[in-house]
Each structure stands twice: as structure tokens, then as C-alpha cells.
User: What shape does this take?
Amino acid sequence: MAPGESEPLQAPSDSTPSDSAPATAAAPSPTLPPPEKRSAIKQRSYVVLSFWLVVLLLGVPFWWKTTAIYRADLPLDSMLKWADGKACRPVFPLQISIQADSLQDQEAQNLIRLTQHALDDLNDFSGHHLRLELAPRNAPIPRDDFQTALTIRLKPGTSSSASLNQESAVLDITYPPNHVPSLTSSSSPLASYITNELRATFAEEQSIISYLLSTSSMSTGVRPQGLSPEAAETLSKRTTRSLRYAPTYHLTFSLFTDRGLPNTWDIEAALDEYIRPMLEVLRPIHNFTIDTQVQLYAVPGVQSQVLNKEHLSSFINAAEWPLSPSIGKAPTVNFVIYIGNQTIGLDAETETSQSWMIPQWGTVYLLSQPDTESHVSTATLKQPMLTFGGHLLSLLGTPQSGSLPLRLSTLGRIRSTDLLLRASSTLGSLARLSLALPSISIPRNVADGVSKTMHHLELACADLGGPEGLKHARIAEEEAERAFFEKSMVGQLYFPDEHKIAVYLPLLGPIFVPLVMGLINETKRIIKELKQKALDAKNKKKHIHDGAALDCRVYHPDSFYTEGAAPWKRHAVVFAHPYAPMGGSFDDPLMGIAAEQLRRKGYLLGTFNFRGAGRSAGRTSWTAKPECGDYTSFVGFMAHYLHRLDPFGHRMAEPPSEKTVPPVLMMAGYSYGAMITTQLPPLDQVLEPFSSPDCGSHAAQIRLRAESWAERQTQAVQEARAAMARGQQKASRKTSPTSSSEKSSSPPVAATPAKGKLSPVSGFITPRPAYLLVSPLQGLVTHLATMSLVPSVFARQKPRQEDDAEAKLVRNPTLAVFGDNDIFVPVGKLRAWVGRLSSQPGSQFQGHEIGSAGHFWAEEGVLDAMLDLICDFAGKLYDGN
Amino acid sequence: MSTTTTMTLQSKVGVFAGAALLRFILFAAFPSLPDLLTGRVEISTPVTSFKRLQEGLFLYNHNVWPYDGGVFHQAPLLLPLFSLLPDVKTWPIFTAVLYILVDLLSAYALLVIADSGEAGQSKLYTSPRRAKRSSGLLVAAAFLFNPYTLATCIGRSTSVFTNCAILFAIAKALSGSPFNAMVAISFASYLSMYPILLLPPLVLLAYDRQSEKRRIGSAIQFSIKTVLIASVCISLLLTMSFALTGNSWDFLARTYGIQLTLSDLTPNVGLWWYFFIEIFDSFRGFFLAVFWLHLVIYVGGLSIRLRAQPLAVLTILLGIFAVFKPYPSIADTSLFLAMLALYRHLYPIMRYTYVASATMLYATFLGPAFYHLWIYAGSGNANFFYAITLVWSLAQSLFVSDLTFAVLRDEWEVERPEMVGKEIRQI
Assistant: This one.
């Protein structure tokens, strides 16, 4: 067996040839660190990934969850509708029943019809609608309820007169008998009298309600015509004076004195007598709680004897008098009795000389009493209490005219309207607020409150005049207020977007700078790697490769060491092995047999492992392009090795002349190797990048290495021959003390670079190419091995390359040997291929089919047949020309 | 040969006995010292305070739900343990003995860890400097006589139990019994929650140091098994607590919930309390998440980068936790310093040991002074104390980053032997 030499075609594995390769090609510079290890880079990627995974998988959801502004869906349209008064038309149908026991049924019916007509004709406010009906005979006087607003009792009398009953909502009307309309008449004095009376009775209520509606935005279409500006002004004064509606009020009765006396008062008795009955009547609308106090030595804010209008506002000594603003949630109404001899200077504004009302606050009553009296009796308290009662009613917004029951039922209706309007306008404000501030949060309970409000508003609107209407309006208003003043919503108002940057930046900046930098660096590296890969793919044509170290062997022909063997004519063969994933490597036995055959014929033999095979680096690729590159690298190596190798010392003696016939460089392959051989570009293209490569490029390294190894081997062979000549032992055939560490530590320093490029080798003779294909692959299996079934973007370019590759087989001596029983390739395909190539004009391609032979040449006798063909082919080339 | 064994045995007994004696003397000679130290914010945090434990214990012994009153935030299983002891007011010595024993156990675990030599030579990595490693006895002594450890012990902070469990988990993982390691780390996590983050490096450590007999080759299989053990163990402990606190899960919110939401803003030596007093309410939730994630984020990265040295990962993580966890105290620092002592062979390549130790001493002396100025004298405000806790954290983070640097440099010098002893620059 020939001496085996093993030589890794080493090149640094770094992907940046520009900065790292010179360090190894030339003397390593001490300032540059060695490139990072692959594993270190991978580890760093994982570290960056682990940080970013936490940020993305945990951080981002947390950020989203904790800072997202929750905005519940609000029914904005219907809210605005309510605010604009489009959702509800306030209508107050008032039932007025007429008791006319003295009249006959038909007469009474007729009277009612006439009166109703008259009323309808006069009515200028459609919302406020009076409807008359006849009460059943001998019905009891109805209790105060909202069902019937007023009952009219008709009694025959001498003249027309009307009086309101103070106890209940009853209007007593007497009429002269002749005023009763006859069944046929279309008008009657009694009817018009009743009409006028009713209008007068409800005039105030009507004006108040129409005023309320007109001041609210709900006024569309209900603006009353009859409201004079003066009347409107009085009404507005009254509404501002009265307290906001609340379901409960605290009444505080206080006795103040600037001396030590009086120190007792009969307040309990006075309250029971004068105030409680009234509160009882008000109960359907409000609840009241009462407390009382006595304060001695309380000095008023104004000391003068006669108080005029200016003094009144500062009379209350708010700083010292313990008048608590409110107890709990309910508003407080204060009633103060001040014992002293001050009086009020009478003018048009004040009502009495003793008391005045403070809007939305309460009443002060000045009570004069002898200095020595230490007790205030019930009798003394009567007048103040009556005043307080009256003032309480006006503070609550009760109309001023009419009987008390009527006033109270009116109050209920006014309050319902008021609450309805308030709730609607609050809804409108909320809707506008949420539209105006898109970053305000709207908690779920606000949405709940809004829907509750709307529900109750609808109920209230359906029964506006009745007690249910008041109840629902009250709930609606409460809910609307609660929704509008929701604490968490208001808090967000004061947190604009600028603040967020101020919060995020200084705190998250320090964390995010390294994170982002790490990510950017990693991304840069990956992009660079991808670019490098793309570049490698582009450099394909130039056969410059990514520096994966390849394992290769060179077998010298016997003639180097033995006399009598076939002389070496500088011919060489490169043999490529089958598919690595299926066990192919340069130790493949069948390839070994064929290659050995060629070596015996006097060829120098070179074999190598494709990437991913044996000890070569890298992985087998999908596209076979890198393998093709491996092949060209090795061919380049071999060409330069051959050129420099001079085992017989001929070089010095006779330098190569023009006349010398160039030696043969046979490129052979078996199976997958044959396929790669088919795909090789023409030889001049293969060798072109090695003729003058950039310093530090892989091609340059390959060339330098080939040359240095050729020098060394030349020396070794010459020594061996000399030793042999001296008759010493032949063991030195197994020279080549090649260990990889030695190789890597002795980088070639030859060929001084000129302008960063290696100069072309002088006298370099391009060998004559020849091709040998054993069991070549054609058809489907080629596509499988190269993945070229996938439609490629480079499809346009491909045919030219393939043509080049095929043309070289035609132009140069080529032998293809295959069996007709190949399991990978249908023999038809091969025949067609051979036919196509050999039929071309001037073709040097010859294909031989061997009967019954399979892909692995294991059949009886076929191997010998194949070897014979090869020997024949090689022999012709060896001798030829 | 036998003489050296007896010598070391003698010196071991000497160190342990000396440490125990010193603690006894401190407990006995200064009866007011334990209560004084218990009240210090540097030693007792809301989740480790002995005083709060007493409150919970009182409620527990009177059949009231111990978390009523919002003072007690510690793991429920501590209650039956302490109710076994005689009343601490009349018989303080029993509590003292318990705490001293726990300290000695921790020191023993440290001794095991140090003697295993893992710090210098792990399965995947051998430090060229390992010859200079510190002896186990020295490490144990450094822990036992560390003033921070002493103060924690005398202050009867319950973090000593957590520390002991963590050290035992590491020791067991090193001695090739992953099961015991997982049980120990489950106890630690149950007591203080944050040690659960030590699980990944601990699993790696246990994987590397498996005994040959019961070896599981696949790393994934091994980690699934160990994580399963830990989760079963933790669930068991939680179920016991569930039964103990009247069949309700409310204790979760009152123990771990407090740590997660930092609802108790009592000052401590950490960085959280002041920040969360000042932060706008609407961002509180977000920054709680950020601070917690900041703790979590190091675990994966360090475990990957220092895959060859899981013990170093554990040490560095303990240092990070001592700085950045919600309720740190000097107990956590004492644990980190104890682990730091294992890396004596790296001291020569650490660069800021002097600055860091000086800063630490500075903060140690000024911390109580500033706290006094703020709380008692009224001549300073909260910023005084917060500033000094910043300095304290700075000192610790110096140690942490310096150790990380040293560990990495040590690894790097194996790769690049020509750079040994040369000045390098960190980019």
C-alpha cells in the first residue's frame, strides 16, 4: 500500500475572513484575541434569549395588565339622548275628579266634557295636562295620594265661589243652579268658572315645571310661552334659594344667647306641636332627623342694634358657633333662635322684623326676651316655630300658593322633574367627559351605575306624576352622581401621558439599556452570519469556501519509492466518495479499490472527505453546493501540490517548457461523488481563484498550504530515495510525520504578498482535465440530493451553470460506468443521458453500461468488468499524447 | 494520619463549641440584648421578625386566626414549632438553644459544602487556582463568628431557618442526594418564598453531582423528577398550613401576598420600601411586577452562562437576592458572605474587595446612626436612612459583580492561558 498522508485542509472557522484569517495566515498578531468559540457565541445567544424571554413572556403581560386603562363600555348615545331630552318627554297627566253628587249623571258628564274642552283649548303647555273625571257618587273624600291630584266638590249655592280645603286636596265650588249647563248647550258659565279656577290653582306648578324644563337642556319643544321674564326671575330666585334634593335632611334647632340666660327651652314640646305634624306630611318625599342645642355666650358676627341688609349675611358667627356643616351624608338645615334685642331694619326685601332666611342654609330668628328670664316657654317658641315651618317649606322648594296638601303634591311632582333632569344632565356630563378624555379609566361600577340610572330613569319617566316616579327618579339621581364622582376615575384625570414618560424612563432605562444592547448585538451578529452565508453562496462560482476544515489524503504512486514501477508522468487523480449520511467517506471500500487501480497505473491519488464525512468539519448540506465547493478546494489544492511536488529533482534540471505536454488531472467520483463531479465547473474556472487570491482568503491558504506541503513531501521523498539508494531499509516509505498540531503551528510563510494578493505561480501549467464517473446519479435522486425540486429564485441562472458543467464532460475525456440494475437510478435515464452527451459533435464522452451490475457492484464479475474499463480509460490517458 | 484527623476533629469541635458558647454568653449576660436586636429594622423585617412571630403565636395559642391583626406575616408551620417551646418570656433559654442549634447546623452544612471542593472543581470545570481553596473549618468559622450572623441569631430572626434550609439544600445536592436537596429547598421556599428561584441552579448542581449508583443520564428527565419532588413537597407543606389555619387558603395572601405586594412598608435595609412609598399609586402594580421580574431575570441567564459552575450561580444569586428582594435583612447578607468565603481562591483576581468591605463597614456603622436620627432624634428624615441603605446595597452589589467577574475571568484564563496575570479591561 502506498504511503498514507493525512492532511487536514485547515482554515479558521470564523466567518470574518477580513480580520481573523490574516492572523493565522501570517504571523499571529498579539493584539488581536483569538476568535470567539462557537459554543461561547451560542451560550451568549441563550443568555440574551433567556433575559428576553422573561421580559416578553412575563414582563409585557404584567405591563399590559397593570397599566392598561380599563374602559367599560358606556352607552354613550343613549346617555346623550337622555341629556338632550330626547329619551323622555316629561308629561304630567293630572287626574282631577269631580264630585257632583247634586247633579244628575248626564248633566255632570256634560259639564265635565265642556270643562275639559275649555281646558284643552286654553292649555299652552302640553306636558302639564289636566284630565277630568267623574268620581263615583258618595265616594269618601280621597286621601292625599298622587293618583288624584285634586278633587272638586260641586255644591249648589247662591253664587259662584271656590275655596281650597286646607286639610286635603279638595276644591269646594258652589254654583248657582242656573249655571249648570243643559244637556244640549255647548257652553256654560259653570264650566268656564271651573276652568279658570283650575288654571289658577295649577298656575304656579305649571310655571315652576316649565321653568325647570326650560333651564335644563331637556327643554326642546316644551318651552312655555306664558312665562314672562319677571316670573322667570322670581322662579329662578326661588330655585336657587331652595336646597338640593336629598332623601333625608338633618334639622338642627339651636338656641343662641350672648348671655348666660336663658339656658332652658321647651323645644321638645314646641317641635311636637308645630314642626312634627308638618314633617309627617312631608314624609313621602323626605325623611328628617332633628337635633337641638343651646349655646350660651354666643356672640354674633354683627353687634349693631339694628341690622340692615348687609349685616344679615355676616350675622352668623361661623367661626365660633358650632353649626356643624352636615352630619353624615345628609345636608343640614339650620334653624337658629338668637335671644337678643337686636332688630332688623325693615325694607322691602325682608319679610318680618324678626327673621330672615339664608338660602340653602336655614333661618335665623331674633327673639327678644327679658334679661332675667331663664326659660323659653312653648308659647314664646310658637312664632319662631311657625316661621321655621314656613321657611322649611320654601327651602324645600314648595310652591307658595294653594293649600298645604296641594302644595305638597305639587312638591312631589316638582321634585321628580328636578331629579329626572339632574340625573339626565349628569349622564350627559359623564358621556361628554368620557368622550373628551380618551385616557380616563372607566371602572366597571361606573358602567353599572350608568345602566342602573338609565333603567330607573325610564321607570321614572313612565310614571312622572306618581309616587313611583319620584322613587325611581331619586334612585336614578343617586346612581348617576355616584357614577360621575367615582374616585378612581377622577384620580386618573391628573395623570397625563407626559408623566408616564417621566415615570418609565429613569426607572426602566437602566434596565433596558443592557437588554436592548444585548439584543442589538445578537441581531447584528445573526445578520452578519446570514450575510456571510449569502456571500459564500455567491462566491460559489469562484470556489472560495467557508473554511470548513476538510480531511484529505494523498497517495503517492509506487514509482516514488520503487524502481520498476510505472513512472510518474505528473498525472493525478482526485476521487470523491459516496453520500456521507449513508456512510460514505474516503475509506469507502469500493472507491478504494477503483482508486488503488488508478494509483497502480502511475497516478498520484488524492482523496478527501466532504464536509460532514469522517473527520471533516461541518454537516452534509441539502443543496450539495458546499460539497461542490469542497471538491473544487481540493482540486485547487491538488493542482498546486502537483505543480510544486518534485520527487525526482527534475524541476531544477529542466524547467518546464512550453513544449511539455500538460499532465492529466482526472476528477473521479463514485455515486454521490460522481454527481458532484458532474456538477463541477470547468477546470480553468476551478483553478482561477487560486491563481492570484487575496492574502488571507481561504483560497490563498489552500494554495500556500499545498505548496508548503509539496516542498516538505519533495524533501521527504528525496530523502527516502536517497536512503534507498544507500541500500538502507525501506521503512521510510511510511514517512510523513504528520500530526495535525505540527501543521497548524507551522504556517506557511512563503510567497510574500504583493498588494494584499498572492502573485500567480510562475510557469504554472494547467493540467488536462479528465473525468471518471462511477455509478453516476441522474434524475430524481439528484434532485433529492440537491433539493432542487424546490423552485428556486436562481432558476434563471442555473441552466448556464449546468450547461457549463455538462459541456466540460463533452469536451474532455470522460468515462461513465454504470450498471443496468442500479437501484437509485433507472437505467433508462442513464441511457438517455449518455446518449445526449455522446451524440454531441466532437464528444469525448463515453458511457459504458455493464449488464446485471447494481449500484454497489456486488454482483458476480461486474466489479472486474468495471475495473477493466477504468484501467483501459486511465491507461489511454496515461500513455496518450 | 490519625493525629491530623483528631486534630481537625478537635478544632471542629472547638469552633462549634466556641460559637455556641459565645452565643450563650450573649444571650445570658445581656438579657435585654435579644429584645433590642429584635426591634432593629436591619435584623427584623415584617416577614422575619421574632416580635411579630410572638404576636402570631399569642393569637394562635388563643385559638384566634394568627393573621388577624395584620402583624404576623410568616409561614404558619412556624407556629406549632414555637408553641412547643416554653414561653419565651419566662424561659428564654429554650428559644436561644433552638436558634443556636440552627446556626450550628447551617455552619455544618457550610463545612460540607466547602469540603466538597465544588467551588474550585465542579464536574464540568476545574479552576487552575483551586489549590488555594479555603478549608471548610475556616468557612464555617467565618460564618459562625460573622457579626451579622451573630446579630441575626441573637435577634432571633426567623430567616435563620430559611438560611439553614438553603445551605442544607446545597450541601445535600453536593453529596449526591437530590431528593434531600429538593426537600430542603422546598422548606426554604415555603418559609420565605424567594428561594424557589434557586431551584434551576440547584437542579443543575444536583444533576452534576449525582451518585453513580442512581444516576439519571437525561438532564430533562432528571429535572422533571426533581421539580416534581420539590412541588410535591411544597404542596404538602401548603396543605399542612391549610389545615393548620382553619381550612382556609387566606394565609397565602397574608404571607406570600405581603411579599408580592409589599403592603407592609416598614423600613428595612432593602431598596423597595422607600420606592413604593413614593411611587404614584397607579403605577404601583406595574413596578411591583418590574421589581419582581428583576429578581427573576437573573436566574436563567446566570444558569446558562455559568453552566459549568452551578455553585457560583447559587452564590451570585444569593447575593443578588440579598440586595434586591422585597424584605432583605443582614441575615441574607450573612448567608451571601458565608458563600463568598468558599471562593477564596478567586480573591486575588477580585478587584474591589477593599472598597466593597470598607463601604460595607461604613454602612454598618452609619445605618443605625441614621435610623436613630430619623426615628428617635427627629433631626433627620427618611432620606438619611434610605441613603445609607443605598450605600449598603452598593457594597453588596460590588461584591456580587466582583465575584461574577472573578468567576468569569477564572474560566476565561483556562481558555486563554497566555493572558494569566495580565491586566484586562471589561467592555
Summary: The radius of gyration of chain A is 58 Å.
